[in-house]
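Lab notebook, design round three. We kept the backbone fixed and only want residue identities now. Task for the bench partner: fill in a sequence for the structure below.
Input structure tokens:
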């Protein structure tokens, strides 16, 4: 009789554990994104709707980009403003816009070539300058596509200008 009781308790425990595992799996699949990530996806959906309405307008794109920069904390804003100045000077053919709610610069096809991700965007310890596939930065079989930024020196600014020029070909 003791054996049956033990077996019943063991079975009940396994059933409870399986139910808990299913619940945990469901929770992970529905809550797998942070609030910041969900907000970025909503921003991107909004951007895609605007693009579908014919938003390859440089002035509107730049206004949206500058609005996003203005919302940033001081440290991120200073970096973003500097990068914006570099990109617009050295790659005027790129269209300013937002991409997942971040300042970005797109080619004539509307594809984001490079972007700035503020440290505050996802609570990171550094901001990031990133380049997408459209950037022509290929160098051998391996090359960087993102750069962590905590501050910008004049040498860093020159390096970014070189990268941006190379990215647009």
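Proposed sequence:
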């Amino acid at each position: 009789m003791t054996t049956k009781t033990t077996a019943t308790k063991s079975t009940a425990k396994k059933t409870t554990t399986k139910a808990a595992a299913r619940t945990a799996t469901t929770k992970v699949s529905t809550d797998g994104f942070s609030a910041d990530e969900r907000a970025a996806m909503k921003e991107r959906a909004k951007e895609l709707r605007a693009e579908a309405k014919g938003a390859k307008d440089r002035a509107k794109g730049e206004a949206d980009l500058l609005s996003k920069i203005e919302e940033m904390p001081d440290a991120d804003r200073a970096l973003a403003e500097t990068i914006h100045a570099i990109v617009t000077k050295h790659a005027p053919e790129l269209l300013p816009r937002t991409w997942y709610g971040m300042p970005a610069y797109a080619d004539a096809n509307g594809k984001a070539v490079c972007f700035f991700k503020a440290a505050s965007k996802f609570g990171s310890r550094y901001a990031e300058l990133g380049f997408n596939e459209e950037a022509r930065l290929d160098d051998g079989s391996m090359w960087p596509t993102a750069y962590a930024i905590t501050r910008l020196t004049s040498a860093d600014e020159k390096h970014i200008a070189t990268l941006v020029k190379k990215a647009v070909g």
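Keep this in mind before ordering anything: The two ends are 80 Å apart (CA to CA).
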